[in-house]
Design brief:
This protein is an alpha+beta fold. The strands form five sheets. Strands 11, 12, 13, 14, 15, 16, 17 and 18 form an eight-stranded mixed sheet that branches. The chain is elongated, with a radius of gyration of 42 Å. The two termini are 67 Å apart. Mean pLDDT is 77; it is low at 293-303 and 619-734. Pfam families: Guanylate_cyc, HNOB, HNOBA.
């Protein structure tokens, strides 16, 4: 199947339903090509597969889809110039229909491997006619009806009604009968017979007739050949007296090869092909000589050895015989030589000789141009595949930052503020690490980053497991929500499941400074929020409202390895969640509140240690090209330090210092001196509407002796009080 039909299908969907629908249908069918080359052959199953999925996605019937596709075909082929071909096929609509079977014969020059259908007209009247449609393909009945109806309207200005009368399978061929109703007054005009006075003209000698038509065949009602043209006598002289059906197969039209059937199909072009290959002794010699002299290549198509004839069947009333006025179909000189023919064997009165010679001269250039076009098309398809892959990766990255439904609205040009939406009730969770400031004072900054990365990697996996949405991380604080951006009536249960899993999973992460496992505190509250994107730079999906602050207070007033929930969340939980009443507590900005401890859930299996280990191993595999054996950390201190040193502007000076005075301990080079005033400004920039208080991290920075601003080895560490995410340093190992 040529890509012309597939491109017609895709363009029809894009024109009527939009490109988004076509992309959706294409991806559902796993079709990689975003477009199709009209001259390239594709699998026969592609159109049925795409059409079936399109009908499901678009919610329309088979008749609606294929009829609309057939109507659009007339508009679609206009960009390739075929509309001009359609417009000159007949003076009237009846002429077009009677010559419809011949249309595909003209197109075979551009589409030689086309499996064309066959059309036969009968029972013509002033009100319409009956058309028989035969095809080796199934599923294109309504497509054909739409094409014929649109041609009648577009080119002849006639409205046509098409009724499907009969549909049946005859062996492997689909036979469909259409009844066409339209204004066919041209039929009456064509029945007027023009009488000519031919008495003064002498009779034509039969020998002259066979010389004018050198490839003609005359046969009777018994299908036995009575005579043949001069050129056929040179290559198949034994044909005379034999049945034509024993020597030739009828390729087109798709009818039985019988005398009476042929008489009723006078308007059709008949294509015959020899049953056996035609190879004369002269042809063999010429073929061998040509191969040795040129490229020594076998003909690409074995059918080149067969003789193809195409022409008209004319009933000779005086003879009571049918005369087939055929012309050989020769794609190139090789075919001519293989059948033992020469240029002077072709008819002189038509363009057979000119077409053969001119076609041979241009064939090489056309083949080269076609090869170049196919290469360009292939490169274009490869580029489109790469573009689709990059778009997919970009979408995945975007959807990790912004919810899909919100991102799609922004793509359509909506203002970010318009994406904000009110949610009557959602559940918000906050968590942070207990004694995080003290831990940071005992380890290096890169160890802090590595520890947080391992913890957040586990929590990110748990969000997918429990179906909650990660909002953001601020320092050691982790924030998730359920019920937004997608509403879920079980939002409180999902968030509490997440909280229980977080408490279980954190026991597998160790404090590098002490060796004991990390401890977190968790707080959950349920209430109304406004969610959306604000601002123009660095868009993020944020939550706003008193419920967010209350959830943050639940976390700040929680205890180590405890889950602190509000009364609003407690009321939404079913009885399978076991809680313990904490009582009335004073919450900053809220006053006295009645809160609870979430203890467990009936029937819940604890998060296994092995499951957490798998998450950690997968995290390392994704972030490090080689296996890492450094505890739980997916990013090692040495790896990041070496990379930072290689990219550091102070690299050359560090190397000089290293050569002058080798030091075995890591060196931290601070490009800017951080003063208490700078630290205070950094803290003031930290968001306070979402998180309770800024977290200061105490870092110990040791400078080597002799370095600018350095101190003797026995001097105490220099404390730097700034938030972790504001620290910028360059590290190296000398």
């Amino acid at each position: 199947m040529y890509g012309l039909l597939l491109e017609n299908l895709s363009e029809f969907i894009k024109f009527v339903y939009g490109e988004d629908k076509w992309e959706e249908i294409r991806r559902l069918c796993n079709v990689e090509q975003p477009s199709f080359s009209v001259h390239q052959v594709y699998p026969e199953s592609m159109v049925p597969k795409l059409a079936k999925k399109a009908m499901q996605v678009l919610g329309i019937t088979e008749r609606e889809f294929f009829d609309g596709m057939g109507v659009y075909f007339v508009r679609f082929v206009g960009q390739y110039g075929y509309d001009r071909v359609l417009s000159v096929l007949g003076r009237h609509m009846r002429d077009f229909l009677n010559g419809l079977d011949n249309l595909h014969e003209y197109l075979k020059f551009s589409y030689p491997r086309m499996r064309a259908p066959s059309f036969i007209c009968e029972n013509e009247s002033r009100q319409g006619m009956t058309v028989h449609y035969r095809s080796k393909r199934r599923g294109f009945v309504y497509y054909t009806m739409g094409q014929i109806r649109e041609v009648s309207r577009h080119f002849y200005g006639k409205e046509m009604q098409i009724e499907l009368m009969k549909e049946e399978m005859v062996f492997d061929t689909l036979h469909v009968t259409f009844q066409l109703t339209f204004d066919n007054r041209a039929f009456g005009e064509s029945t007027l017979v023009l009488f000519r006075d031919e008495k003064h003209l002498p009779s034509v000698n039969a020998n002259l007739l066979f010389e004018i038509f050198p490839f003609s065949i005359v046969f009777g009602s018994d299908l036995k050949v009575k005579s043949i043209g001069n050129s056929l006598t040179q290559i198949v002289p034994e044909l005379i007296g034999k049945k034509i059906t024993d020597w030739f197969d009828l390729v087109r039209p798709l009818i039985e090869f019988r005398f009476t059937t042929i008489l009723n199909r006078a308007n059709n072009i008949f294509e015959l092909v020899t049953v056996e290959p035609i190879m004369t002794e002269k042809g063999m010699e010429e073929k061998q000589r040509l191969e040795n002299a040129m490229f020594s290549e076998e003909p690409e198509d074995s059918n080149d050895k067969h003789l193809h004839l195409k022409g008209q069947m004319v009933y000779m009333e005086d003879w009571q015989l049918i005369m087939y006025l055929g012309t050989p179909v020769m794609p190139d000189l090789n075919s001519l030589i293989c059948t033992g023919l020469f240029i002077n064997d072709l008819s002189m009165h038509d363009f057979s000789r000119d077409l053969m010679l001119a076609g041979t001269q241009q064939s090489v250039e056309l083949k080269l141009a076609l090869d170049q076009e196919q290469q360009k098309s292939k490169k274009l398809e490869e580029s489109m595949k790469k573009l689709d892959e990059e778009m997919r990766r970009t979408d995945e990255l975007l959807y990790q930052m912004i919810p899909k439904q919100v991102a799609d609205r922004l793509r359509k040009g909506e203002n970010p503020i318009d994406t904000c939406q009110i949610f009557d009730v959602v559940s918000v969770l906050f968590s942070d690490v207990v004694t995080f400031t003290e831990i940071c004072s005992r380890i290096t900054p890169m160890e802090v980053v590595s520890m947080l990365n391992a913890m957040y990697s586990i929590f990110d996996t748990l969000t997918e497991k429990n179906g909650v949405y990660k909002v953001e991380t601020i320092g050691d604080a982790y924030m998730v929500v359920s019920g937004a951006p997608e509403k879920n009536p079980k939002h409180a249960e999902l968030v509490c499941n997440m909280a229980l899993d977080m408490v279980d999973a954190i026991t597998d992460l160790k404090d590098p400074s002490t060796g004991s496992h990390l401890q977190i505190r968790v707080g959950v509250h349920s209430g109304a929020v406004v969610a959306g994107i604000v601002g123009l730079k660095m868009p993020r999906y944020c939550l706003f409202g008193d419920s967010v602050n209350t959830a943050s207070r639940m976390e700040s007033t929680s205890s180590a390895m405890k889950i602190h929930i509000s009364q609003g969340t407690k009321d939404l939980l079913p009885d399978i969640y076991k809680t313990e009443k904490r009582g009335m507590i004073t919450v900053k900005g809220k006053g006295d509140m009645k809160t609870y401890w979430l203890e467990s859930k009936e029937g819940r299996l604890p998060l296994e240690h092995d499951e957490t280990t798998v998450i950690l191993v997968n995290t390392r595999a994704q972030m490090s090209p080689t296996p890492v054996d450094r505890g739980y950390s997916p990013v090692t201190h040495a790896d990041v330090a070496n990379k930072s040193a290689n990219n550091s502007p102070a690299k050359s000076s560090l190397r000089k210092d290293s050569l002058a005075a080798p030091v075995a301990t890591p060196t931290i080079v601070t490009p800017n001196v951080i003063t208490p005033v700078d630290a205070e400004k950094a803290q003031s920039r930290r968001p306070s509407s979402v998180f309770k208080d800024p977290i200061e991290v105490g870092l110990s920075v040791k400078l080597p002796p002799g370095s600018p601003g350095g101190s003797p080895p026995q001097s105490p560490p220099i404390p730097v009080g700034v938030p972790l995410n504001r620290v910028s340093c360059l590290m190296s190992f000398d």
